[in-house]
Design a protein that fits this description.
The complex is a heterodimer of chains A (276) and B (227). Chain A has 276 residues and is mainly alpha-helical. Chain A contains eight helices and three strands. Chain A has a three-stranded antiparallel sheet. In chain A, helix 2 (36-52) runs antiparallel to helix 3 and helix 7 (178-189) packs across helix 8. The longest helix of chain A has 27 residues, at 95-121. The two termini of chain A are 24 Å apart. By secondary structure, chain B is mainly α. Chain B has helices spanning 10-21, 27-40, 52-68, 91-98, 107-119, 124-131, 136-144, 167-172, 179-184, 191-195, 200-212, 215-226, and strands at 73-78, 81-86, 122-123, 148-153, 161-165. Chain B is built from twelve helices and five strands. The N and C termini of chain B lie far apart (72 Å). In chain B, helix 1 packs across helix 3.
Chain lengths: 276, 227
């Protein structure tokens, strides 16, 4: 499954708390009463998809997986079999996590308010010009993503589930490459046409092809050649050509594997794997 | 000559000052100007005793006049100063004319921005404990965009940098001052910011740092810290 010839070096700016809040929102469960077993299962599923895509998973994701497992096991223990210390605490093992999630959510909500203000301010011009914030198009991954990474992974996971199982014993030559798929997606969205995420994998036979296409999408999003928008929360994702593309005839994109300056999900050098 | 009727109204003076200055003006600056001119020129001595409150009222009146007449622009307080700005409803035409591209931050960047704004001065480790993931690159980017500045150093071991917001942060999000954040989300703002009666001191301190230290130097030092 690994794309030796082309490794997408995507780093994830979102952390494990983002993923948990995403799952909580998606399932509409009560943040104060998280069904830990269900959420843990889903969390692990997302993690394995991210691994399959070779995304650089921050160590924090693994730490959180361990935390979830620990909470789960502690909740399985009958109360009278808990150690004395634990009894003294008499605290829901989920409490620390809940507290952290609630605190983080507060800032996520504020971030949304800031974003509304940002959109509003876009339409306001001060006399004599304003000293505007300059976000370079190829900047450090701080530009807007209309659709979150976890939305994309969720959609990808759906498609993958529907894909026919791989046939054992058959060794197929690599018919698909990410580079080809990049061309293909660009051709499709040219001239302002839009593409539904759920439909773009329709006739695809193999998991290999699906993964190549998805990696091509991520790469194009990173390079801001396309934009992904969602009409509703957890709705279908629409892929369109980016306004930022100056030359509509850009047929192919040169991919510099070492160029990480424009990484949408830029590599995080710290907070890394030593935590594992 | 001292014909009271030909004397310009207060809001009129303020409007022309803000128009002519071509930059945001604070109440303090406006008042100083009016009082000084009143002292020099007997003709307008009536304005010698003008109070900040009167100025604020006059500015509000001016703002309402402009809104009512659909002038296409209005007076707005942003980042502690009053400026003239276009009506948001007409943004599409101006965007077309000036060919500006929207400058929008990503969700992770906005979240980090929110944490820094409400909890400043705050260390990287504290931001990370809230977000649950490394923010080194995001902070670096926000600093390069001058939305975030180094606001000091913690007394904790290693004396880590503490981060705060800049003047440009207020401008980018169209905020009057940091206390406006308190209205957006009550009980989140750190006590330190809320207690600071004169939030301007925060910016003055900020400008001090920018003058003393080459911002590039600061970024470099920051990188070293993260290595």
């Amino acid at each position: 499954m690994k794309q030796e010839e082309y490794k997408v070096d995507l780093e994830v700016f979102e952390g494990p708390l983002d993923l948990l809040l995403y799952l909580i929102r998606k399932d509409e469960v009560d943040i104060y009463n998280i069904p830990i077993e269900r959420i843990t299962t889903q969390y692990m599923e997302y993690l394995s998809v991210m691994r399959m895509l070779d995304l650089n998973i921050a160590g924090e994701f693994i730490v959180m997986a361990a935390t979830l497992m620990m909470i789960k096991s502690r909740m399985l223990l009958p109360v009278d079999e808990r150690t004395e210390e634990e009894e003294e605490e008499e605290e829901d093992p989920r409490w620390d996590l809940v507290r952290q999630l609630v605190e983080y959510k507060k800032f996520k909500d504020i971030a949304n308010q800031l974003q509304e203000r940002e959109f509003y301010q876009e339409n306001v011009f001060a006399f004599g010009g304003k000293s505007a914030v300059v976000i370079e198009p190829e900047d450090s991954g701080l530009g807007l993503q209309d659709v979150g990474l976890f939305d994309l992974i969720a959609a990808f996971n759906e498609v993958l589930k529907k894909a026919p199982p791989e046939q054992l014993g058959e060794i197929a030559a690599d018919r698909y490459t990410v580079a080809d798929k990049i061309d293909h997606v660009l051709q499709t969205v040219r001239n302002g046409r839009s593409l539904r995420f759920s439909r773009m994998f329709g006739q695809m036979a193999s998991r290999n092809e699906i993964i190549c296409t998805f990696l091509a999408l991520l790469e194009l999003l990173r390079l801001r050649q396309i934009v992904a928008v969602q009409d509703a929360h957890f709705g279908d994702i629409l892929i369109t050509q980016s306004d930022a593309v100056d030359d509509p005839d850009t047929g192919s994109i040169e991919i510099d594997k070492d160029d990480r300056t424009g990484d949408l999900f830029e590599r995080q050098e710290t907070g890394g794997d030593e935590d594992v | 000559m001292s014909d009271m009727q030909s004397l310009p109204e207060l809001k009129q003076i303020l409007g022309s000052l803000i128009f002519g200055a071509n930059r945001p003006l604070t109440i303090k600056e406006l008042r100083a100007c009016i009082v000084e001119v009143a002292g020099e020129d007997a003709e307008v001595a009536v304005y010698a005793e003008v109070t900040p409150k009167q100025l604020e009222e006059a500015l509000e009146e001016l703002r309402q006049d402009l809104v009512r007449t659909h002038a296409g622009f209005t007076v707005q307080e942003v980042a502690g100063g009053f400026r003239l700005q276009s009506d948001a409803a007409c943004g599409r035409w101006l965007k077309h004319l000036l060919k500006t591209k929207p400058q929008r931050l990503s969700q992770p960047a906005l979240e980090t921005m929110a944490i820094i704004a409400y909890r400043q001065p705050i260390s990287k480790a504290d931001i990370e404990s809230i977000r649950g993931v490394s923010v080194a690159h995001i902070i670096k980017g926000l600093m390069e965009m001058q939305l975030v500045r180094i606001a000091g150093r913690s007394e904790l071991p290693g004396r880590p940098f503490l981060y705060g917001t800049t003047h440009l942060f207020l401008e980018h999000f169209g905020l009057k001052d940091l206390r406006q954040l308190d209205k957006m989300a009550p009980r989140v703002l750190s006590r330190k910011v809320r207690a600071d009666d004169n939030a301007e001191t925060l910016f003055e301190a900020a400008e001090g740092i920018e003058v003393e230290e080459d911002p590039r130097q600061v970024v470099m030092e920051f990188e070293e810290e993260n290595d």
